Prior knowledge:
The chain is of the alpha+beta class. A six-stranded mixed beta sheet has the order 1-2-3-6-4-5, covered by helices on one side. It starts with a strand and ends with a strand. The protein contains three helices and six strands.
Amino acid sequence: MVRKVYKTGGFEDLAGYARGVRIDQLIAVSATAATDESGQARFPGDVYAQTKAAFEQALAAVEALGGDLGGVLRTRMYLVVGCEWTRAVEAHRELFGDVSPANTTFYVAGFIPEGVLVEVELDAVVSA
Length: 128
Protein backbone atom coordinates (compact mmCIF):
# COMPACT_ATOMS: atom_id res chain seq x y z
CA MET A 1 0.00 0.00 0.00
CA VAL A 2 1.33 3.40 -1.01
CA ARG A 3 0.06 6.41 0.95
CA LYS A 4 0.60 10.07 -0.04
CA VAL A 5 -0.66 13.12 1.83
CA TYR A 6 -1.27 16.66 0.56
CA LYS A 7 -1.38 19.49 3.11
CA THR A 8 -1.70 23.23 2.74
CA GLY A 9 -1.30 24.11 6.44
CA GLY A 10 -3.47 26.35 8.57
CA PHE A 11 -6.57 24.65 9.96
CA GLU A 12 -5.38 21.26 8.65
CA ASP A 13 -2.34 21.37 10.92
CA LEU A 14 -4.39 22.68 13.85
CA ALA A 15 -6.96 19.88 13.49
CA GLY A 16 -4.54 17.11 12.45
CA TYR A 17 -5.86 16.23 9.02
CA ALA A 18 -4.78 16.48 5.38
CA ARG A 19 -6.45 18.33 2.50
CA GLY A 20 -6.11 15.18 0.44
CA VAL A 21 -4.94 11.61 0.85
CA ARG A 22 -4.04 9.09 -1.80
CA ILE A 23 -3.83 5.39 -1.08
CA ASP A 24 -2.77 3.41 -4.12
CA GLN A 25 -5.10 4.65 -6.90
CA LEU A 26 -7.77 6.29 -4.69
CA ILE A 27 -7.82 9.97 -3.66
CA ALA A 28 -10.08 11.54 -1.03
CA VAL A 29 -10.21 15.33 -0.59
CA SER A 30 -11.46 16.81 2.70
CA ALA A 31 -14.17 19.42 2.92
CA THR A 32 -12.78 22.53 1.24
CA ALA A 33 -14.05 26.09 1.44
CA ALA A 34 -13.07 29.16 -0.58
CA THR A 35 -10.90 30.80 2.08
CA ASP A 36 -7.74 32.86 1.90
CA GLU A 37 -4.45 32.18 3.71
CA SER A 38 -5.80 33.78 6.90
CA GLY A 39 -8.91 31.56 6.89
CA GLN A 40 -11.30 34.34 5.84
CA ALA A 41 -14.08 33.59 3.35
CA ARG A 42 -13.40 34.70 -0.21
CA PHE A 43 -16.26 36.08 -2.34
CA PRO A 44 -18.61 37.04 0.54
CA GLY A 45 -22.25 36.36 -0.28
CA ASP A 46 -21.49 34.72 -3.66
CA VAL A 47 -22.25 30.98 -3.51
CA TYR A 48 -21.36 30.49 -7.21
CA ALA A 49 -17.87 31.98 -6.82
CA GLN A 50 -17.27 30.18 -3.53
CA THR A 51 -18.33 26.83 -5.02
CA LYS A 52 -16.12 27.27 -8.08
CA ALA A 53 -13.10 28.36 -6.02
CA ALA A 54 -13.56 25.56 -3.47
CA PHE A 55 -13.72 22.90 -6.20
CA GLU A 56 -10.67 24.43 -7.90
CA GLN A 57 -8.78 24.11 -4.58
CA ALA A 58 -10.00 20.51 -4.20
CA LEU A 59 -8.92 19.71 -7.76
CA ALA A 60 -5.48 21.20 -7.03
CA ALA A 61 -5.15 18.61 -4.25
CA VAL A 62 -6.17 15.85 -6.67
CA GLU A 63 -3.56 17.02 -9.18
CA ALA A 64 -0.86 17.30 -6.49
CA LEU A 65 -1.57 13.66 -5.65
CA GLY A 66 -1.27 12.51 -9.28
CA GLY A 67 -4.92 12.57 -10.34
CA ASP A 68 -6.93 14.70 -12.72
CA LEU A 69 -10.43 15.98 -13.41
CA GLY A 70 -11.34 12.90 -15.45
CA GLY A 71 -10.76 10.66 -12.45
CA VAL A 72 -13.27 12.42 -10.19
CA LEU A 73 -15.95 9.89 -9.36
CA ARG A 74 -17.88 11.52 -6.50
CA THR A 75 -18.50 15.06 -5.28
CA ARG A 76 -20.34 16.46 -2.28
CA MET A 77 -21.55 20.01 -1.68
CA TYR A 78 -22.53 21.27 1.76
CA LEU A 79 -24.54 24.51 1.60
CA VAL A 80 -25.78 26.83 4.33
CA VAL A 81 -29.55 27.04 4.55
CA GLY A 82 -30.91 29.95 2.55
CA CYS A 83 -28.15 30.24 -0.04
CA GLU A 84 -28.94 29.92 -3.75
CA TRP A 85 -28.35 26.21 -4.27
CA THR A 86 -29.00 26.65 -8.01
CA ARG A 87 -25.87 28.82 -8.27
CA ALA A 88 -23.80 26.14 -6.53
CA VAL A 89 -24.99 23.42 -8.91
CA GLU A 90 -24.35 25.76 -11.85
CA ALA A 91 -20.70 26.05 -10.81
CA HIS A 92 -20.55 22.26 -10.37
CA ARG A 93 -22.02 21.67 -13.82
CA GLU A 94 -19.50 24.04 -15.44
CA LEU A 95 -16.54 22.28 -13.81
CA PHE A 96 -17.71 18.65 -13.96
CA GLY A 97 -20.34 18.50 -16.72
CA ASP A 98 -18.24 16.37 -19.06
CA VAL A 99 -17.19 14.04 -16.22
CA SER A 100 -20.62 13.70 -14.54
CA PRO A 101 -19.45 12.37 -11.17
CA ALA A 102 -21.89 11.00 -8.62
CA ASN A 103 -22.97 13.87 -6.37
CA THR A 104 -24.77 14.53 -3.12
CA THR A 105 -25.78 18.04 -2.05
CA PHE A 106 -26.75 18.87 1.54
CA TYR A 107 -27.96 21.83 3.55
CA VAL A 108 -26.06 22.29 6.83
CA ALA A 109 -26.39 24.63 9.81
CA GLY A 110 -23.14 26.49 9.10
CA PHE A 111 -19.36 26.43 8.89
CA ILE A 112 -16.50 27.42 11.16
CA PRO A 113 -15.12 30.21 8.94
CA GLU A 114 -17.56 33.11 9.07
CA GLY A 115 -19.08 33.96 5.69
CA VAL A 116 -18.52 30.55 4.10
CA LEU A 117 -21.63 29.49 2.20
CA VAL A 118 -20.38 26.18 0.78
CA GLU A 119 -17.81 23.48 1.42
CA VAL A 120 -17.06 20.74 -1.09
CA GLU A 121 -15.50 17.29 -1.01
CA LEU A 122 -14.50 14.90 -3.74
CA ASP A 123 -13.14 11.43 -4.37
CA ALA A 124 -11.11 10.45 -7.39
CA VAL A 125 -9.35 7.48 -8.87
CA VAL A 126 -5.97 7.67 -10.61
CA SER A 127 -5.60 5.91 -13.94
CA ALA A 128 -3.08 3.08 -13.83
